[in-house]
Automatic annotation (TrEMBL):
<protein>
    <submittedName>
        <fullName>ATPase, class I, type 8B, member 2</fullName>
    </submittedName>
</protein>
<dbReference type="GO" id="GO:0005886">
    <property type="term" value="C:plasma membrane"/>
</dbReference>
<dbReference type="GO" id="GO:0000166">
    <property type="term" value="F:nucleotide binding"/>
</dbReference>
<dbReference type="GO" id="GO:0045332">
    <property type="term" value="P:phospholipid translocation"/>
</dbReference>
<dbReference type="GO" id="GO:0005802">
    <property type="term" value="C:trans-Golgi network"/>
</dbReference>
<dbReference type="GO" id="GO:0140326">
    <property type="term" value="F:ATPase-coupled intramembrane lipid transporter activity"/>
</dbReference>
<dbReference type="InterPro" id="IPR023299">
    <property type="entry name" value="ATPase_P-typ_cyto_dom_N"/>
</dbReference>
<dbReference type="GO" id="GO:0007030">
    <property type="term" value="P:Golgi organization"/>
</dbReference>
Amino acid sequence: IVRNPAGRIRLYCKGADTVLLERLHPCNQELMTITSDHLNEYAADGLRTLVLAYRDVSEEEWEVWSESHRSA
């Protein structure tokens, strides 16, 4: 989780494509298809793949998460 120079909070996440891709918002089906094709090509070559995703988090969401994280 980082705060960018404009003050916005951004959550970054990396992980297996099988886990992260199903959690993404289906905003651009063409891009998802192209990405899946690339991942399949890499896997066919025996390469391991990871996916990177991000989401902007509101100040309110950050405060709730931060407080629960501190108390854990």
